[in-house]
Structures are given as C-alpha cells and as structure tokens.
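Design job #97: recover the sequence.
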C-alpha cells in the first residue's frame, strides 16, 4: 500500500520529510480516512506516510488570552466530545465530534484530518465554519492563516499544498451570556453512518432578539454552504415558532443537493428544513439541550506507549503485544490488523469489513480501543497493544468472556472478539455502566446473529460480578 513510513519527532522533521518526498507523501494522524482512500484508489501515487502522532503538544485544546479556542492537529473527536471547554464554549463542534463514527473511530480520527479530507458530508466542517474558524498551514518556507470558508475549492479539494501541514485550528469561543450554538445531523442509522444532511447554527443575542445568525449546511452541495437568506431573516427577531419555521424553509433554498446512494436530492432538500428547524428549536429552548453526555463513553483508559522511537533500523517494528515484546523485520507497508494476523500469528482479531464499519478487528492501542484495519502497522512501533488473546489469565477467562458464554451471547462467533474487546474497555473505563452506555460502547461493532440483547446482558452481568 505504501513503501516508506517515517516517525516524525518534531513538526520541523515532518515538514522536512514533506518537502523532500513531495506529493508522494502524506501525513498520518488517525489515518481512518487515508487508509481507505489509498485502498480504494481515491488517493493515488502515495508511497510515504509521515506519522506525526508522537510529536508532543499537538493534542492540546486551549483557550488563549484573546478568547480564541485552539485545537492542535492531533486533537481527536473523542478529545472534543470529552472537553468541558468545548461543551461550554463551542458546543456545535462537541456535538458533531460525538456523532462521528463510533468510539473506536473517534479515538483515532482527528478533527484536522476531517477538515483535510474535505468531504462535504464530514460532520466537523459545518460547526467549525459557523464558529468562524481559521486554519494555520505551515511548510518549511513559512506559515499562513486561511479562513476555513476559503479553505475548500471543491469536493475533497483544498488550498493545502503538498508541502504544508495543518498545525492549528482556531476560532472565537462562544460567550455563554450572549451566544448559543448547536449542530444536528440526519442519517440512515444511529451510528457509523455518513450524514444525509447536517446543519450547524450560531446565534448571537441582544436581549431576547437576535443580533446575528449564522447557519451552515453539509452534505447538500459540493462544499459546505451558508444559508444567507435565513440568516438575514433571523436578524432582529425573536425565536418564536413561526420565525423558526420560516427560517428553516429559507435555509432549504440554500441547498443544491444531488441524488446518490444515500438519498434523493428532493429528500435532502426537505431534510435541510427539518434539520435547521430542530437546531433552532434547540437554541430557543431553556435550558438548551446538550445532546451529548457530560462524560461520554470513550473506550479509552490511560496506558504507556510511545517508547523507543530512536535508533531502530529502517523497516523494523518493535512493539509490545499482550505483555510480550515482538520485533518484526517488515510489515510497515500494511495495516495493524494484517500485522497481527499474518506476522504475529494472533488470529483472534478478525477481519470483517476492512473499512472500519464492523468492529471485528477491535484491539487496544496504548489504552484506546481502535479498529486495527484502519491503523498503519508501523504505528505499533513503541506501542502497547492488547488483543483478544491477551485477556484471559492462564486458563481463567476474563469475566466478560465468561459472561458471553453464560448468556449465550455467541452464535457464529466471528464478531465476538471485537464485542468482547469493546466491553472490556468499557468496564475498565467505568466499572458500572448503564445499559445505554453499554449500547454506546458497542455502536462500532456489528453482529448479524444475536440481535444484541444477549450481548448487552453479558456486559451487564460482567459489570455486576466485577462490582460484587
């Protein structure tokens, strides 16, 4: 899939590698989109991946002295969803980040990567655009700042140059006293789904009346679009039901959707009005609905990892799997899933879809549940990995494994390793989860046999026994 994998230790190292390798190189953070694009031929001619995930300080979310929020390029969707600052002063982005994929995807996928991928259906672009975000782009020759509204030139096209790295995303924090924002998307299923339509709005109030409104729409045009007629209509008005209704209809006029496999153009246009109406109703409500838990399920716990990145020969991957050190002399040109199965001979981790849709390949990477089919194998270098084979202690099954047997939560068994890994990480994160939290934990895992009820029963049994 690729020939060279570089572990950058600083931004300057990453930029130097980009400058040297040219258009054949790509930066790697989450890689949840990039690996699929390479396999599907969307991104061609790529022979070098430059991993920036070990560069210190790039995963920070901070508020500066001028009231602007900054997101580093390694900030993940789960980082956003779990951040109190984001929920208090950038709620639309927190809501959008929480809706992306499933917990395993949100642990790897970055907001910066979502922006750079540049799909008009990507969920974090509308809230960032409605918040007035800009991106900082850096190359070996200098730095430039580009408003996000000017970043896109077409579907999957941006002004980012081959030698540039997105190093910062920043936007004004919302003042809770005078401004409100919200995001909503309409999909064909609750999780692991691309938006049919999404919408974000930020309203600035002067007392009970609107001083200013901004509305953005996704998945309804080649790029994210604003709804200027609806914005102008809302200015100076109160958010009465009839005002919301008319603004929603005006917003639908800004859409220019197409027919595709997920929806007809007519349905999308109608759903724009529905989405905008629901967003404005949220903003009119007191208190405003958050639609995101105060402590969302992350499937992540603290862990070691990232040691020993210096001095290893090229093409060698040294990693710790289930407490044992492994050294692979090749394999950096494949995914972690294939490395585990083909080189480590740990075949408990299954390949179901190889697209991050089914969760059968879930493993723990440095304490986070991830889908190993979307992780470059070389990211295992210096990492701590746990697979399904590492859960049992000798002949003693892990409590979750035993609970799956006790509750007949296994039929064909192909998906079972992924479900068990998600459940184990959930109980590590919160020992006594609610049934709803258990459901959220396995939203990234698909099963065509059991109907899920027995799986959820098994998770709750394991939690009870763990707390006994």
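Job complete. Output follows.
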């Amino acid at each position: 899939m690729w020939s060279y994998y570089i572990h950058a230790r600083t931004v300057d190292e990453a930029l130097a590698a980009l400058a040297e390798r040219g258009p054949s190189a790509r930066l790697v953070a989450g890689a949840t989109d990039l690996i699929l694009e390479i396999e599907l031929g969307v991104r061609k001619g790529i022979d070098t991946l430059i991993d920036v995930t070990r560069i210190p300080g790039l995963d920070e979310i901070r508020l500066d002295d001028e009231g602007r929020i900054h997101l580093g390029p390694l900030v993940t969707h789960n980082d956003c969803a779990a951040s109190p600052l984001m929920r208090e002063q950038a709620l639309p982005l927190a809501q959008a980040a929480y809706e992306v994929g499933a917990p395993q995807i949100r642990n790897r996928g970055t907001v910066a990567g979502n922006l750079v991928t540049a799909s008009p259906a990507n969920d974090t672009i509308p809230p960032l655009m409605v918040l007035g975000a800009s991106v900082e782009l850096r190359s070996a020759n200098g730095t430039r700042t580009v408003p996000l509204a000017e970043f896109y030139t077409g579907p999957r096209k941006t002004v980012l140059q081959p030698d540039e790295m997105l190093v910062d995303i920043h936007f004004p924090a919302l003042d809770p006293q005078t401004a409100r924002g919200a995001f909503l998307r309409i999909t064909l299923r609750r999780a692991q789904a691309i938006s049919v339509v999404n919408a974000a709005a930020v309203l600035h109030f002067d007392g009970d009346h609107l001083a200013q409104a901004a509305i953005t729409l996704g998945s309804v045009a080649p790029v994210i679009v604003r709804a200027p007629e609806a914005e102008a209509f809302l200015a100076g008005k109160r958010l009465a039901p009839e005002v919301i209704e008319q603004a929603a209809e005006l917003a639908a006029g800004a859409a220019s959707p197409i027919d595709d496999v997920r929806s007809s153009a007519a349905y999308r246009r109608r759903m724009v009005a529905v989405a905008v109406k629901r967003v404005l109703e949220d903003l009119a409500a007191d208190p405003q609905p958050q639609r995101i838990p105060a402590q969302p399920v992350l499937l992540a716990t603290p862990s070691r990892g990232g040691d020993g990145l210096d001095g290893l020969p090229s093409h060698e991957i040294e990693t710790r799997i289930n407490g044992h050190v492994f050294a692979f002399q090749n394999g950096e040109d494949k995914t972690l899933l294939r490395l585990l199965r083909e080189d480590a001979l740990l075949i408990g981790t299954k390949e179901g879809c190889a697209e991050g849709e089914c969760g059968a390949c879930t493993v723990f990477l440095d304490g986070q549940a991830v889908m190993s089919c979307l992780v470059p194998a070389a990211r295992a270098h210096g990492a701590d990995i746990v697979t399904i084979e590492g859960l049992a202690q000798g002949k003693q099954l892990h409590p979750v494994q035993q609970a799956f047997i006790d509750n007949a939560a296994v039929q064909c068994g192909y998906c079972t390793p992924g479900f068990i890994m998600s459940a184990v990480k959930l109980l590590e994160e919160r020992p006594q989860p609610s049934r709803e939290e258990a459901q959220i934990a396995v939203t990234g895992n698909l099963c065509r046999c059991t109907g899920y009820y027995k799986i959820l029963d098994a998770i709750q049994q394991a939690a009870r026994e763990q707390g006994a």
